Automatic annotation (TrEMBL):
<dbReference type="InterPro" id="IPR016171">
    <property type="entry name" value="Vanillyl_alc_oxidase_C-sub2"/>
</dbReference>
<feature type="domain" description="FAD-binding PCMH-type">
    <location>
        <begin position="35"/>
        <end position="216"/>
    </location>
</feature>
<dbReference type="Pfam" id="PF01565">
    <property type="entry name" value="FAD_binding_4"/>
</dbReference>
<dbReference type="InterPro" id="IPR016166">
    <property type="entry name" value="FAD-bd_PCMH"/>
</dbReference>
<dbReference type="InterPro" id="IPR036318">
    <property type="entry name" value="FAD-bd_PCMH-like_sf"/>
</dbReference>
<protein>
    <submittedName>
        <fullName>FAD-binding oxidoreductase</fullName>
    </submittedName>
</protein>
<comment type="similarity">
    <text>Belongs to the FAD-binding oxidoreductase/transferase type 4 family.</text>
</comment>
<dbReference type="InterPro" id="IPR016164">
    <property type="entry name" value="FAD-linked_Oxase-like_C"/>
</dbReference>
<dbReference type="InterPro" id="IPR006094">
    <property type="entry name" value="Oxid_FAD_bind_N"/>
</dbReference>
<dbReference type="InterPro" id="IPR016169">
    <property type="entry name" value="FAD-bd_PCMH_sub2"/>
</dbReference>
<dbReference type="Pfam" id="PF02913">
    <property type="entry name" value="FAD-oxidase_C"/>
</dbReference>
<dbReference type="InterPro" id="IPR004113">
    <property type="entry name" value="FAD-bd_oxidored_4_C"/>
</dbReference>
<dbReference type="InterPro" id="IPR051264">
    <property type="entry name" value="FAD-oxidored/transferase_4"/>
</dbReference>
<keyword id="KW-0274">FAD</keyword>
<dbReference type="InterPro" id="IPR016167">
    <property type="entry name" value="FAD-bd_PCMH_sub1"/>
</dbReference>
<keyword id="KW-0285">Flavoprotein</keyword>
Amino acid sequence: MNDFLSDCRSAIGEHYVVTDHTDMAGYLTDWRRRFTGKALAILKPGSTEEVALLVKLCNQYRVPLVPQGGNTGLVLGSVPDDSGNAVVLSLTRLNHIRATDIINNTITVEAGCILQTIQNAATDVDRLFPLSLAAEGSCTIGGNLATNAGGTAVLRYGNMRELCLGLEVVTAQGEIWSGLRGLRKDNTGFDLRDLYIGAEGTLGIITAAVLKLFPQPKARLTALAAMHTPNAALKLLSLAQSHCGATLTGFELMSDFCLQLVVKHYPQMRLPFPQSSPQYVLLEISDNESAEHAEATLERLVTDALEQEVIHDAVVASSMAQSKGLWNLREHIPLAQADEGKNIKHDVSVPISLIGEFITRTDALLAAQFPGCRLVTFGHLGDGNLHYNVSPPEGEAGDALIASQSDINRVVHDSVDHFGGSISAEHGLGAMKRDEIRRYKSDVEMRLMERIKTALDPLNLMNPGKVV
């Protein structure tokens, strides 16, 4: 492989071909630090043209490549396997905002742009880019597109497929497809954009995108409501949609155990209620009319929910600081669970109307088969996406739980399938769920996916071992 690496150095510069083991380490370990792969090198191109040159070299020398952005994924989609045959193609140097069009409400960005940078760039021109994730300070837009990321505002704005109008892609053969069209209507054949979004780098490498922008809302209001059951949360969702319509931006379900973990590990945070409740909903409305209109809307919703006994308490943030405090409770759940110890994560979706039944049934199945396990259940109730995570019994280190991971996954995933859901709502399949998905997709569907992969990447060099 010396000739290959030498040609890579000639293509992008010696400094951007990293082979030192210490310097490579951060690119080879997944975000949860559960797996470390091996690679020939880390390649760091600085332009779409350099990406294309490197892909052509990988074709010439038959070297597999793993595209990588911020490496914040949770399903081993952005790290290489342990064979040491692949290279990691880091896109972090492709980090320019190419254009902003406030009349067309679009922003054109390169794949290595940090999500928070794009949010800030939109704010600078009095616009909103609504994708919001816990990892927004480190994840890249290329990774968001590759996994069709969702986040907390899907209910109003949709996931990345809805937020993207056009792409620039380097194909598996090293060709550059420039589809950076800021069009909302373009019915001229197969939608290649949607094919590459969510493909996790297995069909080609996204190098840039045209994204939708939205007007900045005049007001944002946040409330935390307490209730007894997930079904009560579903009733609140129906009320909120009736009262708030399109202004309802976020609707997050959190169990009491989730928030008790947060206040345990982050004692500076406090629940704003005198007594705990089995379930909570964090909801947000974004109003384009006025703060007064938003306040009146939210007041009517809360009053109606209390009168109908859908909820038994609620607090409405009266300042941006209070709003951020409420959101911090939600955003610290994954961190608190990690602080608590080893755990098993599930990113699932089921039809919204069945979420209460899913939680009740699956909680009971796990309690019967794995006594004492603790369930950290939270997520985007408004779009049916739950993070249904399992922690070991109180006081246990978690080794026994991890040893039973396959059995626990089977219980959860079979239950998801029973309710007509998906075992991956927004994290993707990566290597972790690549084999598992075959249990739940039909043979026809898997063959269609395999044919697309073979047609676009016949040498199987693009992120091999992931998705299909």
